[in-house]
Amino acid sequence: MTNPRMDGFRNRVGGLAFGGDYNPEQWDPDVWREDVRLMRQAGVNVVSLGVFAWASLEPEPGRYEFGWMDEVMDLLHDNGIAVDLATPTAAPPVWLTHLHPEVFPIMADGEPFGFGNRLHYDPSSPIYRRYAADITTRLAERYSFHPALVMWHISNEYGPTAYNEASSVNFRHWLKRRYGDLGTLNEAWTTRFWSQVYTDWDQIEVPDIPRAWMNPSRILDFKRFTSDALLECYVAERDIVRSFRDDIPVMTNFMRFYRNADYWKWAPEEDVAALDIYPDPARPDSHVSAAFQFDLFRSLKGGQPWMLMEQAASAVSQWKLNVVKEPGRMRLGSLQAVSRGADSVMFFQWRAGRGGQERFHSAMLPHSGPGSRTFGEVTALGREVELLAAVAGTTARAEVAVLFDWNGWWGLEEVGGLPRNDFSYADTVMRHYTPLWEHHYAVDVVSPRGDLAPYKVLIVPNAYLIDDHGVEAITAFAHAGGTVVMSFFSGVVDECNRVRPDGYPGAFRHLIGAKIDEYWPARPGERFTVRFAHGRTASADWWREDVHLETGTALATYADGLLEGRAAVIANAYGSGRVVYFATLLEEAAFGAMLLGQVEAAGVENRFGDVPAHVECSVRQDAQHEYLFLLNHDAERGAAVRLPGGGRDLLTGTPATGEVTLPPLGAVVIQRALQASQAA
Predict the structure, then answer these.
(1) 629 and 565 part of one domain
(2) Pair 258, 278 in one domain
(3) In terms of domains, do 566 and 652 share one?
């Protein structure tokens, strides 16, 4: 189902959006005209404007200076460049924090988060919200019908966690809405443990740094509350701009693997999901993690196209070592985002800043000017993005889904008190995703409340905490004929972080066909051998479970140690479906082979089985065409890919038939008539 606001956006920009954050308030007006001239040269058609401009728009409380913004908006429009106009509320001006220091967020250690960074506000502060609403209203009054406006960009990278008194007040209101009465809350939080029973709502405060251990259910609910408090800020500003004009899309920008906001709850409140992502060029596998994020953001709104809002043209400045993107890498990463559903290629930022924390963060127009390598690559990419206009609005389909859940993430990493407290949910998810990426399977990402009907296989990585709705959905999926591949320490606690009854794994005991007596985290350096039914062995480490089979059968058993002979991998028939459960951390090769075997056995289509792993294969399609992206991520090796049928490479305009040769870091985008491709 398409969004009319986003349809209008695509029509206005004429295909894919190309551009980046523009901060003209940091430059003299004579630079603006040079900027616009070079933007046109580079093919820029959209800029994000005013993201950090609050102090320039309102230099004193109630005194507004919109003249410079008027001039920039007009200048951009006159040159055919559209504006994604931001509310500047991610960085309150110093006058606000001096007038009202209580808007500063208090950190978990009790110290204030001082001025000089950004996100220096308590999202529950009524004072902050009042001033944010005021500047948003002023912008909407002035620019809602400006001809340059194509999108509203609300704030920037929401994220502060605050431990202020205002947060405690708002937390109590949130808990009242969630639980209704103290008796229900006390039961959910198991407060009789350690005599923590609450008898008055005013006794509940936000959980600052504990001096020993802290109630894990209280911490979990505070994580949920923080996400919702931030969302309240977004919705308030969104509703203001929508009250002036309702046909302009509204969004904010998210971040990769970010814990403080549950994006499954946020996405329905936006017209489009938008991602800021900075894959580390120093890490050879960073493009695989990026691919997962792209699949997640495409999935957040049910497969609708998403927006790449920020990336780096070359190096960043926030890490200990900030290496440049080698020639061709920026282009390839941009095409990778488009291949997995992005309808934009945007950067932070247009012109590199002379000062400030991000003065060495690369830009589309770097310090070395328009004669630089980076600007040359940006300009060449702009021409290619224009050639891909037909791809805008197209979608992708997948038969494999990976479960990703913020509540489960918080349960594993935030609350403590587990058999081992060094889980990395992101690493676990990537361990399941990577073999699918390497073997070119299309993947969607789903929440426990998502629709599982379109899929043949559901991958469930370490779903330690899962609510009853998620349990029912996964169980029904398997019963109806789906294949579930699940990893250890899943189904253990309910949504309140209480251990489920009837033994481990309480939620999935009947699903996996086994009971788990104990969880056995491995000692440092401990490894053990797993033997498969056909005699092959593999190593495992980090985790074991003492499994007692019921209806399930062992696909592999421990070959040594105190659990010798116990099942290490279980298969169970459930209804019309099949469940495979990993009770240990198998070495990557063996785990990947077993996971892929289940995907193949489930009948999932793989059109690219013979393509080398370093060549990424993705498909977008509409009612008439499919668009096949082949991206070679290897900087040294070329690759040859045989095509099933022919088409036209949109990047060169030449026919593509038979075998396509990709140079190192090379790419092709092949447009094919949909009926012809299906026949092939």
Answers:
(1) no
(2) yes
(3) no
Total domains present in the chain: 3
Residues 373-382 have a mean pLDDT of 98
Domain co-membership, 556 together with 619: no
Distance of alpha carbon 141 from alpha carbon 494, whole angstroms:
47
Model pLDDT, residue 79? 98
Each residue's pLDDT tens digit, 263-290 = 999 999 999 999 999 999 999 999 999 9
Residue 126 within any structural domain of the chain? yes
Which of these, 299, 308, 108, 314, lies nearest to 211 by C-alpha position?
A: 108
Q: Are 638 and 665 in contact (CB under 8 A)?
A: no
The answer to which of 158-162, 542-546, 564-568 has the lowest mean pLDDT is 158-162
Of 601, 633, 654, which closes a domain?
Answer: 601
Q: From CA 360, how far away is CA 354, in angstroms rounded? A: 8
Q: Are residues 371 and 438 in the same domain?
A: no
CATH number at residue 18: 3.20.20.80
Domain limits for position 69: 4-161+251-391
**Cα–Cα distance, 124 to 229 (Å, whole number):** 6
How does residue 674 score in pLDDT terms, banded at 50, 70 and 90? Answer: confident
CA-to-CA distance for 256 and 279, rounded, in angstroms? 10
**Domain stops at, among 601, 627, 657:** 601
| Average pLDDT of the residues in 127-154 | 98
CA 33 distance to own-chain centroid: 36
Query: Token pair for residue 432?
Result: 């399941």
Among 17-26, 421-430, 607-616, name the one with the lowest average pLDDT. Answer: 607-616
Same domain, 551 and 472: yes
Q: Which residues pair with 570 in a beta bridge?
A: 554, 581
**If you average pLDDT over every residue of the chain, what do you get?**
95
In a domain, 188, yes or no: no
- Which one, of 589, 407, 590, 401, lies nearest residue 485 by Cα? 401
Q: How far is CA 445 from the centre of its chain?
A: 10
Whether 560 and 575 have beta carbons less than 8 Å apart is answered as: no
One domain for residues 73 and 157? yes
**Backbone phi, psi, residue 296, to 5°:** -60, -45
Instruction: List pLDDT tens digits, range 100-109.
Output: 999 999 988 8
407 in Cβ contact with 224 (< 8 Å): yes
- DSSP 3-state of 537: strand
Note whether 556 and 621 are same-domain residues: no
In the β-sheet with 443-446, what is the strand arrangement from edge to edge?
A: 443-446, 400-403, 457-460, 483-487, 577-582, 567-574, 553-558, 527-532, 537-541, 585-586
555 part of a folded domain: yes
In the numeric block, the tokens 């490894």 are attached to 527
- The domain spanning residue 635 has which CATH number? 2.60.40.1180
Q: Is pLDDT above 80 for 679?
A: no
The answer to whether position 593 is within a domain reads yes
- Which pLDDT does position 211 carry in this prediction? 60
Distance CA 249, CA 372 (A): 35
Active centre residues (catalytic): 157, 310
| 459 vs 135: CA distance, rounded Å | 45
Q: What is the signed CA dihedral for 186, 189, 194, 200, rounded to 10 degrees?
A: -40
Give the number of other Cβ atoms within 10 Å of residue 222's Cβ: 25
- Calpha distance 649→646 (Å, rounded): 10
